Each structure stands twice: as structure tokens, then as C-alpha cells.
């Protein structure tokens, strides 16, 4: 994973040409296909209408998917560097190279159920994603592998919300990565339209999220926030998704209040 300047310094963006701690050739082929697929890209645009335009909620469209997919793959890379076991592909008799494909496809399709409704969207995502996977997976896999890959991707999609418990490390990565899209840009549209709900205000308080190799755990997530409202994103959303993900012992979260101009109710949180 690249450690160059800018966004890349905090392991925020997956670069196909960088060195990774996992085999990436098949992943890169799948990503190239997905990013130019008309049906998938239309879903990513259409799924934001209910969330943002009709419900004044935070972004759940193409930008959210890009961020979640990038952070999921960066998180996966750090966990692989820390020798964390990924059981989803392995228990299905699939290859190590399929782990990252499961993660990338689940990250891409996890929110398409929003085209039906935001409420219970994880359940609506399953049949819609299944149809897409029936078309996409045979481009890269035989029949038996397609069936097994489809099941693993759908499992990760279903478990990205807190109702269902992830049974694979791959699914745990999706659950946590979804919560890592918490920076203020995500709530820009509802905020500009007068939205002042806790999700919007707390997201506005988060300026930066980075992923790094940890000292006491494979991954450290560092969150910079400008006021105490950001605690909601950290404690009620990210912490809640980390619990039950299966990655509780592998990820350390540190949130720091970077606002030096006001009295700070909260200076630092560690989970």
C-alpha cells in the first residue's frame, strides 16, 4: 500500500499499482470491470436519491461507495500485514486472491437497496446485488466458484448493519469500513439544505480519518475532530459497528479534538 504524501499517507486510497500484502491481480481486473459497468454505476447514482434528496440524510451514493471500498481494501491490507486470518474465502475452498474480491464487491454493492428505501436497506440490497453478481462473477469465475463467491459477498452485504453478526473476517471488514466514512464532506448536502440532525452535525465535526499500522494492534484508526459533536460518530456509530465485527482486538481507534481555539469538552478518546 502506498505511503506517499497527501491522502495516501494515511492509507486512505487503494492503488492497484502499489505493493500489497496480498495477491491483487484478480482484484484489479474486477475493479476495472466494476468501475466502467453501466448498471453498477447507475445504481450508485440512483441509490442516493432516497437517502439524500428525499430524506436529507448523509451521502450513500457513488462517493460514499468509493470511500468505503478504498478504506475496506486499505483495512484489509493492514490486517493481512498483521497476519490476521480471513476465513470467508478459505472455508469455501476459494483462493487467497478471492478475499479482496469479496471485500471489493461487497463494498461496491452494500447500499444499493437504498433505491427501494433507506429503512431496512441491507435486506433490499440482497436480491438486487444477487442479480448484479449473477452477471459479473461469471466473467471471472466458473460455476462452482461463482456460487461460493456470491454467497460470501451477499453475507458481507447483509452484515454491514448491526442487526446481523458477521461470520467472516471479510464481512467484518465491510462493517467497519462502512462506519469509517464519517468526514464532514459526507454530510455537506444535507447540511447546506438545513439538515441539523445528529448524523449531519456529528459528521460535520470530523475533519480527517486515517488508517495506519498500529503498535499494539495491526490497525490504528486516527480520527481528527473539531468539536465534541464528533464523539457521536466515534462512539455511537464506529464503536457500535466495531463491536461484533470480529475485529475488536485487531483495530485500535483514537479520536483527537484538534480545535485549539475553543475550550475543549473532549480532547481525546481511545477505544
From TrEMBL:
InterPro entries with a match to the protein in the record: HD/PDEase_dom, HD_domain, MJ1020-like
Domain HD/PDEase: 57-192
Pfam families, per the entry: HD
CDD domains: HDc
Protein name as catalogued: HD/PDEase domain-containing protein
Amino acid at each position: 500500500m502506498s505511503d506517499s504524501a497527501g491522502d495516501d499517507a494515511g492509507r486512505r486510497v487503494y492503488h492497484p499499482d502499489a505493493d500489497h500484502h496480498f495477491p491483487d491481480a484478480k482484484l484489479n481486473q474486477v475493479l476495472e470491470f466494476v468501475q466502467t459497468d453501466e448498471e453498477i454505476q447507475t445504481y450508485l447514482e440512483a441509490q442516493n436519491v432516497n437517502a439524500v434528496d428525499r430524506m436529507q440524510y448523509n451521502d450513500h451514493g457513488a462517493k460514499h461507495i468509493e470511500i468505503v471500498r478504498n478504506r475496506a481494501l486499505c483495512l484489509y491490507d493492514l490486517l493481512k500485514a498483521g497476519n490476521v486470518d480471513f476465513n470467508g474465502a478459505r472455508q469455501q475452498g476459494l483462493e487467497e486472491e478471492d478475499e479482496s474480491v469479496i471485500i471489493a464487491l461487497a463494498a461496491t454493492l452494500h447500499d444499493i437497496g437504498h433505491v427501494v428505501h433507506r429503512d431496512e436497506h441491507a435486506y433490499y440490497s440482497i436480491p438486487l446485488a444477487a442479480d448484479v453478481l449473477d452477471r459479473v462473477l461469471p466473467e471471472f469465475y466458473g460455476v462452482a466458484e461463482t456460487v461460493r463467491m456470491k454467497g460470501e459477498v451477499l453475507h458481507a452485504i447483509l452484515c454491514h448493519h448491526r442487526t446481523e453478526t458477521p461470520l467472516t473476517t471479510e464481512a467484518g471488514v465491510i462493517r467497519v469500513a462502512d462506519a469509517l466514512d464519517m468526514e464532514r464532506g459526507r454530510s455537506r448536502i444535507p447540511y447546506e439544505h438545513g439538515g441539523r440532525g445528529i448524523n449531519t452535525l456529528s459528521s460535520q465535526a470530523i475533519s480527517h480519518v486515517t488508517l495506519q499500522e498500529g503498535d499494539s494492534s495491526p490497525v490504528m484508526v486516527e480520527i481528527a475532530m473539531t468539536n465534541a459533536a464528533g464523539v457521536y460518530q466515534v462512539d455511537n456509530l464506529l464503536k457500535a459497528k466495531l463491536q461484533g465485527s470480529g475485529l475488536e482486538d485487531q483495530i485500535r481507534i483514537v479520536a483527537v479534538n484538534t480545535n485549539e481555539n475553543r475550550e475543549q469538552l473532549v480532547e481525546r478518546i481511545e477505544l
